[in-house]
Amino acid sequence: MMVLPSTGQVSKSQIRMPGVYPQADSYVCTSLELSDEENYLTGFKALATKGTAHHILLFGCEEPGSDEPVWDCGEMNKNSDSDIPRAPTCGSKPAILFAWAMDAPALQLPKGVGFRVGGDSNIRHLVMQVHYMHDKQEPDETGLGISHT
Description:
With 149 residues, this protein is an all-beta fold. The chain has no helices and 13 strands. The two termini are 14 Å apart. It has one domain: Jelly Rolls (Sandwich), CATH 2.60.120.310. 0% of the residues lie in helices and 45% in strands. The strands form three sheets. Strands 1, 2, 4, 10, 11 and 13 form a six-stranded antiparallel sheet that branches. Strands 7-3-12-5-9 form a five-stranded antiparallel sheet, with no helix packed on it. A two-stranded antiparallel sheet has the order 6-8.
């Protein structure tokens, strides 16, 4: 985390699963490439409930673990029945930026504080990992709302 310059305008973005059909006890990842412009992440809000997702982790990565829109990123999970490709969460330099579980409230970092991403940082991609406890019969678009400057 870093102290922010006082002139940052706050914007909101989302990262969402692109309509996946996860299996029970699966870990699914999707990524978002960041612009070359330096940004600071200042707040997070889960776009999910504990009935939808067991937990969500947001990683900052130099490179995502896969170029696919979604991939099985349950490195410790032995479930090999997945229809999606398997790869690690990050290809290199992973950093956990946010974690959510059990209907936790949104998180707003203190004024003047944020996670530096893009620009000359080593965080070029955001990777969201969702742990699903149950099979989904309808497409899932679990995600995170992210405030940034």
